[in-house]
Protein: BTB domain-containing protein
Amino acid sequence: MAQPSMFKEQSADVVIRSSDGVDFWLHKVILSLASPIFKDMFSLPRSQDADRETVEVTEIAKTMEDLLRFCYPMRDPELLPLNRLSNVLGAAKKYEIEFVVTGLKTRLRSFVSSDAMRVYCIAYKYEDAELAQAAAEHLMMRNLSLYDFNSNPPPEFSQLPITALAKLIAYRERCTIVATAALMDDEWMITGFDKHDRLRLSIKRKVIAGPTTWVWLSCSSCNEGTVDISVRFPGHSKRYSIRPRQWWQSYRDAVVRELSLFPGPLSSVPSHEPLIRSAVAGAQRCFSCGHKAAAELSEYAEGVGKRIRESVLKVKIDFPFKAADRRGTKKHGCKGPGLSHRRIADHPRSLRLVEHPVTDPLSEVFTT
Ligand SMILES: [Zn+2]
Structure:
């Protein structure tokens, strides 16, 4: 039987046999210090008719080798590709080797910018809500269609419940709703920019603009739109209305439409060049709006884009495994995933650890 060269110490007192039949000669004390699962296992009595106990595991040799290199006093594996990283993370979680899990998640995080969808899938598979959220946020920040994986889907797709993708789609929809609400916040448009006069109320209770109020609110020369903006003034319980110019209303309508369709970051939609260009062209037909529209609209678009970004960052996915994560941090020396004490008792010299499939309640699909 093949034996990896780096794990063949004669002082070994246990043999771990991988699913593809490779033996690792190891030391119970090291495995017990690293893993409460192995510690529990080795604390059980066994028969004395063999020099070394043999433990069969369901991991392939490459995964066990990667895992053991983290546990033994030797150099950690460098630059693990995502496939191996995913496999060894799964094994580290199964055997509750917390320091390896933590280190691997840090490595996994470094792939977020280059392969956010894979990281999302792996984080979902191994129930890391924080990392899955970070990957989901990155997915929202670049040109990506969630339906773009027909020809080359991430391998984890076949291992994940449909909930995983549904959560991502629901998250995008929720971000769009939040972004639209930020855009439609008229109060903020009027009060959120120090450089621009706020609207005031005249003695005759008429809403009036100052010299630097947004031009689409101060102009009275070109066509007005059809939708009022509602304004509240300090000391007044009643709200008052003002109607922006038509060209600006068309711009904002276009931004709302684009927020639902745009394949990139939502925060960049207000500054999307075709939308700005079209709005400014409309404003050029008015003498009053024409000379201010380009600069003011760009300033507004940048400001509202920043506000959208801040709002969207507050949206969090409600993963179904949050509670399981919290429980997991308190496990010590208990029965871990895939370890049956009964089966250990039945097979004291040749232990097989059985993985239980993870299931997700479909009822939680749309709670994002
Ligand atoms: Zn005008």
